[in-house]
Amino acid sequence: MAEAAGPESAPSLGILAEVDDDHVTRTQIVRAALELDVIPAVAAGNHDAEAIARVTGCSTAGMRVLLDALCALKLLRWSDGAYALTPTAEAYLDPGSPANCAEIFLDDLRAWDRFTETVRTGRMQTDYASAGSDRVWAAWAAHQLRNWPNDLPTYRERWQGLGVTASSMPDARILDVGCGSALATLVLVLDLPRATVTGLDREAVIEVAGRLADALGVGPRASFIAGDVTSLRDLSGTFDIVFSGHVFKFLNPDQIGAALHQARRLLAPGGRVVISEVLADPGDYEHTEQYLLAAWVFNVAPRGRIYTLAEYGAMLSEAGFGPAHRLEGTSWFQAEAPSWSAQRKEMEPGGTSRKGASLWPSSGCDPFTQDVPT
Description:
This protein is of the alpha/beta class. It has 16 helices and ten strands.
């Protein structure tokens, strides 16, 4: 009989240990709370296990276990003999909150139930790019009605890294395609004295974006149009920046190409398209985000996938843009309209654009470190 291998030769359980760890347990606890409407029950004034169990149709013993677990996860708190919502649950999971986004979390968890069948058959049961997904994306946009102070600094940093500042583009005209809450571009209206934003998204989503613009005090310089990327062909006007964040992963290359051609048509001479997307980097298994996101996209976007920077570069080139340049350390990249590219060839970093504005941050350093030949 062969002897068992010694500990020094035993491989680690790796991810298998995590499958049974508290991360999965946390997800299932939150899911149970969402499916059983525990948060609405507490928000309605039920503060003990018996009352919450009664209105949700659950056993008292089981509900007490769930409520205590939610306290441990900081979604509920126990005080003076009563359960109450924490600020996080009150902001994002209470149906009475304008920032309630419980629906998208629950919808996403249920979509994962179908992942095995999606892999087996290659047929997606969920389509987050369909018209029926409006309510889900509106729920996701709504979280920024409360969360915006947490994300705004990151967006501001990205635009500054791209050289879009009050001194370089004070009167920028921005088109935000698939705008969601539009926070990514509303920050420019906050920071650039005469900038304007036009957001394009589904009707239910732009209603949320309009509320956020008003809350930020920039409503008069923000306008919103109901539609999707196919609606670009119906737009007129001229923009200095066309931005799209986390939209193209839901589309196939032909759809992306058509959208980029329309973006090129809508850009003023010297304009730029700016894209934010997680990028594929085949074979780089140390950075797991791209592969986990690729699995999610495969499950919920029948026409989409994760694209490489080179693939985007080729699509941008075919649409008439210059090379794609990635902002170092981020998933943001841009490409310039031909006239801008021609001017850039004649200038060193720190040079002057058609508006007399520096194309690069004041440091004089080119922030784009990954060039893609086109």
